[in-house]
Amino acid sequence: MPRAEVGTPKYLANKMKSKGLQRLRWYCQVCEKQCRDENGFKCHAASESHLRQMLVVGEHAGKHIANFSAEFQSTFVKLLSRRFGTNRVRANTVYQEYIADKEHLHMNSTRWVTLTEFVKHLGRSGVARVDETEKGLYIAWIDNSPKALAKAEANMKKERLTTSDEQRERQLIADQIERAKAEVPEAGPSSVPAEGLKRDETSEKVVLSFTPKLVAPSSESSSGGLKLNPLKPSINPLKANPLKRPNPLKAAAPAANGTSHNDKKRSAPSMTAAERLIVEEQERKRRKMEREVLA
């Protein structure tokens, strides 16, 4: 049955029926004809026009398949680079956009049977980076153009220039340490002595004391100087108290004996600071008892 002429109702009906994507296995790339069902593809394969085309292709089958494969890869990579750039994207998403064009080159005419094989081929050839996850294969286009390479080199130069002097010095020190380790032969674990804190039993123990040393004011050092008592107060608060009432018994006692308490203290031999504090404490207790008796 001949084809319907352009503009006829039969031609328009066929165009309306062929809208959208059809089955890939019912497409003939040699004749560039899409069949709607299995029976239609069987009838097309048995037609005279198809057999003539197959005879022409059969003479150089490898050449035609290589041309179809190169064209398919070129078109697919061009879509990947222009639509997604160097971004990471699912391979199936790119393929769905590629086959959205009804006049595209179908994969059944190439040497790749599935999309997975084609994507792995792109990864092996260095056209794209491929990684496989639980959600499927992901690809990212690798820009190897001279302009991109020059831009990457310029970015590396800029990064090297912006590196601080401190980082360069650290890197230099690290390199020197690595070179020194490489030059020095490795020593065994027995050659390194075990260092640690050791105590000499024969040495004398050192005792630290933070208590102040009491020295008598009249004692002289071996160098001939005088040592001052740091605990001796400059002013006695008991004697400097203007509100203190005189004790009549204490004042009468010196008059009877003929000597006062201060005269006894002056006539007494020089005492140490500790002895003087003990005497003052006893005197204070005695005055307290006298006040209680008078009260």
Automatic annotation (TrEMBL):
One of its GO terms (molecular function) is double-stranded DNA binding. SMART domains: Kin17_mid. Residues 243-257 have a biased composition (Low complexity). InterPro entries: C2H2-Znf_KIN17 (IPR056767), DNA/RNA-bd_Kin17_WH-like_dom (IPR019447), KIN17-like (IPR037321), KIN17_WH-like_sf (IPR038254), Znf_C2H2_sf (IPR036236). The keyword Zinc applies. It comes from Pleurotus ostreatus. This is DNA/RNA-binding protein Kin17 WH-like domain-containing protein. Belongs to the KIN17 family.
